[in-house]
Design brief:
The protein is of the alpha+beta class. It contains six helices and ten strands, in the order H-E-H-E-E-E-E-E-E-E-H-H-H-H-E-E. The chain has helices at 4-18, 41-45, 147-154, 161-166, 176-186, 203-223, and strands spanning 23-28, 50-56, 59-64, 68-73, 79-83, 96-102, 107-111, 118-123, 265-270, 273-278. It has a four-stranded antiparallel β-sheet with strand order 1-6-7-5, with helices on one face. A four-stranded antiparallel β-sheet has the order 2-3-4-8. Strand 6 and strand 7 form a beta hairpin. Helix 1 (4-18) runs parallel beside helix 6, helix 3 crosses helix 6 and helix 5 crosses helix 6. The two termini are 30 Å apart. The relative contact order is 0.14. It binds a DNA duplex (16 and 16 nucleotides) through residues 1-3, 6, 34-35, 58, 73-77, 95, 112-117, 132, 157-159, 166, 168, 175-178, 227, 229-230, 232, 249, 271-274.
DNA sequence: CTTACGGCCTGTACGC
DNA sequence: TGCGTACAGGCCGTAA
């Protein structure tokens, strides 16, 4: 499930459950996820205490008192389950790859069927130079992500605006659901070309609207507990419910929700990923591809 | 340098 | 019921 809102919620749940606790034991059920686990993975975690939590784009950062940071990415299907005990009928057992045992007697399970997720450990002082983090752009919810920045960053890229929003080196945290939803909210067509975009007089205003929409949608999704697709659960077992507020994602062939718009939601492929949009109210720009 | 796309995995849905 | 195919919340690494 995890885009920025889901990652943020999972981070907050973990923080609430185990911040300031120590990691009394770690069970590692396989040698790799997307990448091999780092050298001495368990040794570096065991016995340490958690000092704080952070997030960079879709990465969760868990800071430890031994000057290491645990770096976690959930990939497509990664999730955490926080439990007080382990039921015998644990149906996730097959995909439970790492289990953390904390000093407040909680069991934190990392579950990831597709194993596109990853874990790594870095020194706190070197976190910004980590190979997977160093090129990531400003967070989608930060002030640094604004119209001026976005316009400058994407101008003359040979891709469309939707693909640009998914590029974590441009802006951190937006995924395939919220890219479509934000473009719909701002009434911008996903076909809009970045090439030469700075030269169009409507671009500044469009980018202002888009940035506002991105933040609005992401914040609203966080408030809603994120989006639950398939059988995903939040770490406490609850369902997110933002999926009930999708206007375009997974809404192919449905009528557009916007007042006075009689358009039908379309599904297309852009850079190999699905894009959903209304070709009636998401303005055709004169600089579309 | 930039951009395009194969590949990593499992699970599910659907057509035959 | 089974089997083949397409697709799914991400993104690295390599080719071009």
């Amino acid at each position: 499930m995890p885009e920025l809102p889901e990652v943020e919620i999972i981070k907050r749940s973990l923080c609430k459950a185990i911040d300031k606790q120590s990691i009394v034991d770690v069970k590692q059920n396989r040698l790799n996820l997307r990448f091999p686990f780092p050298l001495n993975f368990i040794d570096k975690l065991k016995g340490s205490s958690i000092t704080s939590f952070g997030r960079k784009a879709k990465y969760i950062l868990i800071y430890l008192n031994n000057n290491y940071v645990l770096i976690i990415h959930l990939g497509m299907s990664g999730n955490f389950l926080i439990q007080k005990n382990t039921p015998d009928d644990d149906k996730n057992i097959k995909h439970t790859h790492v289990v953390f045992y904390t000093s407040n007697n909680l069991i934190i399970k990392y579950i990831d069927p597709r194993r596109f997720g990853l874990m790594d450990i870095a020194k706190v002082s070197e976190i910004n130079q980590h190979r997977l983090l160093k090129n990531i752009g400003p967070d989608a919810l930060s002030n640094e992500f604004n119209a001026k920045y976005l316009l400058k960053k994407i101008t003359n890229k040979k891709c469309n605006i939707k693909t640009a929003l998914l590029n974590q080196n441009i802006v951190g945290g937006i995924g395939n659901i919220y890219a479509s939803e934000a473009l719909y909210h701002s009434r911008i067509s996903p076909h809009t070309s970045c090439y030469g975009i700075v030269n169009y007089e409507d671009s500044k205003n469009n980018m202002k609207r888009l940035v506002k929409s991105v933040k609005f949608i992401l914040n609203k999704a966080i408030e809603a507990g994120g989006s639950t697709i398939s059988d995903h659960r939040l770490p406490n077992g609850d369902l997110g419910y933002f999926q009930n507020e999708f206007n375009v994602y997974n809404c192919e062939s449905k009528k557009c929700n916007r007042k006075h718009c009689s358009g039908i939601i379309k599904k297309i492929k852009q850079s190999g990923r699905s894009t959903f949009f209304c070709d009636s109210c998401q303005e055709l720009q004169d600089h579309e591809i």
